[in-house]
């Protein structure tokens, strides 16, 4: 059985980190939390659980996750977010992978809790992410947002059974606040990639398609009020992203 490290990056995650650490059980031999100088009790909670805590200034999601991966004691790593919780079935699947490691990385499915509702439609499920990996065979990639673990060419990936329970937004206000933050970052990322042209197609039709695709074609309507909120706010996010990109471009050209 390969030795396994769990790595988690945090910033002001006092509401979530205890639940995440408690659910680890005996799945790993080493747990390290890389904290971006939280101002709440995140670090105290981590130390109460007896895990290693390293404080490191946040330089971006890709950089922080690669740094955290490098701090792991072992080459086989499970990366989690503070708002994720392992289920019994997923813990068993991780143990099975450790006992018979066959791939460069394994993906897990996330089941998201949105304002108290478990979301199974609208494109939010199963939301598979590569999170269990051999750090020697890949790395975290991306620009400013939408980071992902990418395995080296020629390497294979597998899938784990079970779920990571993802406690995302506890209120509409929190969702809107995060959306405002992330759309600003996404607009900056698009500009860095050379995407500067914004038309009515981007401002009107793409948000409309985002809502229709998630709510109708991906059956978000089956998630009731939560599904409607997700589809509506996601469509608003598409508009904000391109509106911010447009104003950013116009300022640069002025």
TrEMBL record:
Keywords assigned by UniProt, alphabetized: Membrane, Transmembrane, Transmembrane helix
Limits of the Glycosyltransferase 2-like domain: 5-134
Domain of life: Bacteria
InterPro entries for this protein: Glyco_trans_2-like, Nucleotide-diphossugar_trans
Ranges annotated as spanning the membrane: 215-239
Keyword Nucleus: no
Family: Belongs to the glycosyltransferase 2 family. WaaE/KdtX subfamily.
Protein name in the entry: Glycosyltransferase family 2 protein
Source organism per UniProt: Hymenobacter antarcticus
């Amino acid at each position: 059985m390969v030795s396994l490290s769990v790595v988690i990056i945090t910033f002001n995650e006092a509401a979530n980190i205890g639940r995440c650490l408690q659910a680890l059980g005996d799945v790993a031999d080493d747990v390290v939390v890389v904290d971006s100088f939280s101002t709440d009790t995140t670090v105290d909670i981590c130390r109460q659980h007896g895990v290693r805590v390293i404080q490191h200034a946040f330089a971006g999601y890709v950089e922080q996750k690669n740094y955290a991966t490098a701090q792991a004691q072992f080459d086989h790593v499970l990366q989690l977010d503070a708002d994720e919780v392992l289920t019994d079935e997923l813990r068993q699947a991780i143990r099975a992978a450790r006992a018979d490691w066959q791939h460069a990385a394994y993906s897990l499915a996330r089941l998201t809790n949105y304002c108290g509702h478990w979301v199974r439609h609208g494109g939010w499920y199963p939301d598979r992410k590569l999170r269990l990996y051999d750090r020697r065979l890949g790395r975290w990639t991306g620009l400013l947002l939408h980071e992902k673990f990418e395995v080296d060419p020629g390497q294979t990936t597998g899938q784990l059974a079970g779920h990571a329970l993802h406690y995302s937004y506890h209120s509409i206000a929190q969702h809107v606040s995060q959306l405002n933050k992330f759309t600003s970052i996404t607009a900056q990322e698009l500009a860095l990639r050379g995407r500067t042209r914004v038309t009515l197609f981007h401002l009107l039709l793409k948000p409309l398609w985002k809502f229709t695709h998630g709510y109708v074609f991906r059956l978000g309507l089956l998630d009731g009020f939560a599904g409607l909120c997700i589809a509506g706010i996601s469509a608003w996010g598409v508009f904000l992203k391109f509106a911010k990109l447009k104003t950013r471009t116009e300022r640069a050209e002025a």
